[in-house]
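are you around this afternoon, could really use another pair of eyes. what follows is a protein written twice so to speak, once as letters and once as structure tokens for the fold. i want to understand how the tokens follow from the sequence so walk me through it. anything you notice is useful, everything is just below.
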Amino acid sequence: MAEAGHVLLVIDSTARRQPLMKPSVSRGLVIYSVAVTTAVIATVGASALDDRTPARFGEIDVRRINVREADGRLRLIVSNTSHFPGLVFRGKDHPHPNRKTTGVLFFNDEQTENGGLLFHGRTDKDGKVTGGGHLSFDQYEQDQVIQLAHSESGGKRWAGLVFHDYQDGPMDLDAWEKAEAMPAGEAKDTEIKRLGERYGPKRRLFLGKTRDRNSDIGLFDAAGKVRLRLRVTPDGAPSIEFLDDSGKVVRTIDQSAQPAG
């Protein structure tokens, strides 16, 4: 400790014997320091902005990531629930009536939603589970035409591969937004039903497990009505059902049918 104190004393006494620094020299040092600091910041900033130099992180926490082309076009969003977009159509974000989820959305060359990977799940105060997820592929300027999905609610679960069909041409977002803005009541319900019948999806094929735990393959007509169903019940009973356009089974082939010939 004594030696350390001695060193401090020598440094202190030496400092007292040095003449005071001239103001011009002090200003020169300040200018030099500012110039060097600015150059370092500029170099680091340029490196960060140079998209040819990848940034590496061990771990990163974010609420949303936007992936864009060099010209700024949006191509992909990874987001939590609070920052999840609505329905992005030709670069404009429109309100979505019921999407409260998290996941990944993909966009086409014109910045219109083109598919996604979405998922959610929770247990409510009564212990009931609501959840699910899906991977979807969208028709051009329409909704999903291919869907690999799982859904769970009210103690029932279904999972399957679904194909849909839509009308030709883009969806009418203005009509949907006007309907959603209408006061609650019969008029609003009627308009939303009309739009759903006109613009909504028409299921064409289902392959999966139903809420009743049947294994089904369903084939649907252009109006979205099931016309042929291959089914195996939970207890193992297989059947083929033919249905009319009202959904009534008009013929059934099951394991009790006699083989031809």
In short: The chain is about 25% helix and 35% strand. The radius of gyration is 33 Å. Confidence is low (pLDDT under 50) at residues 1-21.
